[in-house]
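Q: What would this chain look like folded?
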Amino acid sequence: MFYYVLKYVLLGPLLRLLFRPRIEGLEHIPDDGAAIVAGNHLSFSDHFLMPAIIKRRITFLAKAEYFTGPGLKGRLTAAFFRSAGQIPVDRSGKEAGKAAIREGLGVLGKGELLGIYPEGTRSHDGRLYKGKVGVAAMALQARVPVVPCAMVGTFEIQPPGQVVPRIKRVTIRFGEPLDFSRYEGMENEKAALRAVTDEIMYAILELSGQEYVDRYAAEVKAEQAKKFPRLLR
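A: My prediction, written as structure tokens:
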């Protein structure tokens, strides 16, 4: 219930008013049935802008840190994300990745929309980074289409470290659903998972026009944090 209050009464109308999002390709979101919406991740604002313009409910796999913050702010943030139907995901280690896939498959098994950022973390510099194969594992195991999505302009309104977003128009683009039925029965093959993930990332790249980096964002962030500890937050 709180999800729809946020979407249609509290947050959704406000976001539409402030950011006046240009929406392209919304017809590619299926009217019913399970599907994955896979997008780039440039800003904290992405969590709210995309769900605000999609007619159906969409559940995101959100990083566990949003649910475990200290103090009053941490409790309020956790309550907000839980009320909005988001699922906490521990991003540390291989077993954590398997747990995230199980959670995602649970959402898809109910015929719902699942939102995921294949890069695994926000881009710290506005570029698009290599996707992790969890999105492919879920698409192949659940046998569902993947709708690529590109957020354009959200990095400029709220780059890392900026708490209050700038008021500026953004664009949200959805591409045609990607069908991976040709990989049926190959959900445990590493080459197939990598191929599917790369195809998804290329579709996002075509929609976003970003510069692509063939490395994981988390690795690059860690390297830069060592060199410039105050640069990244």
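The radius of gyration is 17 Å.
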